[in-house]
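Duplicate of earlier report; TlpA family protein disulfide reductase input re-posted below.
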Amino acid sequence: MGAQASTGSRARAGRAARGALAAAALVGAAGLAGCTTSDAQPSVVDQGYVAGDGSLVQLAPDERGEPVELAGTTLQGEAVDVADWRGAPVVLNTWFAACGPCRLEAPDLAEVSAETADEGVRFLGLNTSDGAAQGIAFEEQFGITYPSLLDRDGEGVLALRGQLPPSATPTTLVLDPQGRVAARFLGPVDPSTLRTVIDDAAAEAA
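Output:
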């Protein structure tokens, strides 16, 4: 009986320790989830699997909506329309220069963009706050070579309504070769997970 009581005590202690660790992990994830412009935090859908410091939701092909329609002018003043990029995956990422999680993930996005460029994968940023000069300085600091749309008026975010949680930056969307949202990351992306999601989307075109 003494051995059974000791085992039960150890089991209860183990469960308590695991509960404390889980609570600490949730607090840490919440702190790194992203930048918001209000006190209200976006809800996180607990589907798929956890990616880095944020959550990832993947959609099966028969669960996806209509192709994304997004066009605008880049920080460098060039016109971009994602409809021109159909046939290969497209990665859309919302950001602004003063956003800490955006700065955290920027080198990873630059790296994955460079690794997948020869595969036809396109990346496009959506800058929601900065002027052109500030945004370009951010790109140069982190080695980002893919374009970003200026979206201070919110037209790009409006075009993605239903896909982007309100006030949640960064958010990253992966579009399938047809231009439909195949996956959504909330918070900074994990580069290896992002690469896997891109590869999954690219395989659909094979």
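The longest strand covers residues 90-95.

Merging into the original ticket.
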